[in-house]
Amino acid sequence: MPALTNAQASRRYAVEFTIVVVAYCVFVFAAPALIEATHATGNARAALALAPAVPVAGIFIAMDRYLAAADEFVRKRLVTAMLVAAAFVFSAATAWDFLRVYAGAEPIPPFSIAPGFFAAMGLAQGLLRAADAIREARGA
Amino acid sequence: MKNRLKVLRAERNLSQAQLAELLGVARQTINAMEADRHDPSLSLAYRVAQALGVGIEEAFPPPD
Questions:
Q1: Chain A neighbours among B 32-51 (CB < 8 Å)?
Q2: For an engineered disulfide with A5, which of A38, A60, B24, B50 has Cβ 3.0 to 4.6 Å away?
Q3: How many domains would you assign to chain B?
Q4: CB-facing half-sphere around the CA of B18: CA atoms within 13 A
């Protein structure tokens, strides 16, 4: 029996994921507000500007803990979803940047990349689960 | 990898959810193994056979 059952690992991941997403949302709005309110300069301004990036790293730490604890089939599905999301985000960002340079497209805010990745990963996980459910319903 | 999990589980009146709980894995993992959509690692194959009270070759018959 593994240290955590799959259900326990899923619950822990859900809690950790929620905490870091809430932290990201708070920092995204709090950082510019604090910069404006305090007129911070130098290192303090840089630290406030970087604050929203910290929870993004936290999400990957939570995912790493989940991957280590999840059962092998769930792990395979999560890795597939991450690959799909990475493929989508990297391809879309690269394509858009070429459009920006050569065709005058508007630039994408870089901080939209991380939410885009996690949205794509969530969508891919949902689609993989739905495909499993359909196969299961068909008895395959 | 062919397996007899569905038959062995039914003989023991275990649902997929019950077997999954015994093993600490997701129910979908049991379903994927039974449907031959997931080849388990050696470690999980041993644990499945042990939970069903059979040898690994009975749960996962070797190919002809």
A1: 32-33, 35, 37-38, 40-41, 44, 47
A2: B24
A3: 1
A4: 9
Domain extent at residue B19: 5-54
Indicate the DSSP class of residue A30: H
Assigned domain for B45 exists: yes
pLDDT at A89: 94
Question: In this structure, is the dihedral angle defined by the CA atoms of residues A33, A39, A44 and A46, taken in order, positive or negative?
Answer: positive
Please report whether residue B61 resides in a domain.
no
Contact (CB<8Å) B29/A73: yes
Q: In this predicted complex, what is the ipTM?
A: 0.88
The whole-model pTM stands at: 0.82
How many Cβ contacts (< 8 angstroms) between chains A and B? 49
User: Which residue's entry shows tokens 């391809």?
Assistant: A91
CA closest to A138 among chain B residues: B35
* Residue B63 located in a structural domain: no
In Å, how far is B64's CA from the nearest CA of chain A? 23
